[in-house]
Amino acid sequence: MIVNIRKFRETDLKRVTDIEKQAFDKNYPEFLIMHIYTTFPDGFLVAEDENSMIIGYVIALVEWGNGHIVAIAVDESHRQIGVGTILLSSIENFLFNECHVKHTVLEVRFDNKFAREFYYSKNYSDRKVLYNYYDDGADAILMIKRRSDLVGNYPIFVNMW
């Protein structure tokens, strides 16, 4: 399968929200997705198949010198074939090489073993449990990935943990 990664366009919003509803029990409202996009448009990428259909997306910000992956999701009919890996690699490349962040961080539901295993395989590690992080009271794990060529020990500043 051929996967093309490109920047999000406002006309992509409906398809992105459809994928979001498939992937997550609690969805970001459209106004919040658009707010994040207008705040940091370069951090919002979509994956398209060979027919130019959007099959996944990733949203990231730069906060306190870190890359923060806010959301990543793949259409249910295109999972387990590497689309998530391509999206994650693309946004990490942008964050590490163009934004020059030292770390990327993300939150994942504590009980989402599949997602945690995915991130472990991409060299993320558990940093901290975020108790009662989600609206339903579920805990999250703050995961972190250090820039591969980083020399020295740099602190990680986060504004919400």
From TrEMBL:
<dbReference type="InterPro" id="IPR045047">
    <property type="entry name" value="Ard1-like"/>
</dbReference>
<feature type="domain" description="N-acetyltransferase">
    <location>
        <begin position="3"/>
        <end position="148"/>
    </location>
</feature>
<dbReference type="GO" id="GO:0031415">
    <property type="term" value="C:NatA complex"/>
</dbReference>
<protein>
    <submittedName>
        <fullName>Ribosomal-protein-alanine acetyltransferase</fullName>
    </submittedName>
</protein>
<keyword id="KW-0808">Transferase</keyword>
<dbReference type="Pfam" id="PF00583">
    <property type="entry name" value="Acetyltransf_1"/>
</dbReference>
<dbReference type="InterPro" id="IPR006464">
    <property type="entry name" value="AcTrfase_RimI/Ard1"/>
</dbReference>
<keyword id="KW-0012">Acyltransferase</keyword>
<dbReference type="GO" id="GO:0004596">
    <property type="term" value="F:protein-N-terminal amino-acid acetyltransferase activity"/>
</dbReference>
<dbReference type="InterPro" id="IPR000182">
    <property type="entry name" value="GNAT_dom"/>
</dbReference>
<dbReference type="InterPro" id="IPR016181">
    <property type="entry name" value="Acyl_CoA_acyltransferase"/>
</dbReference>
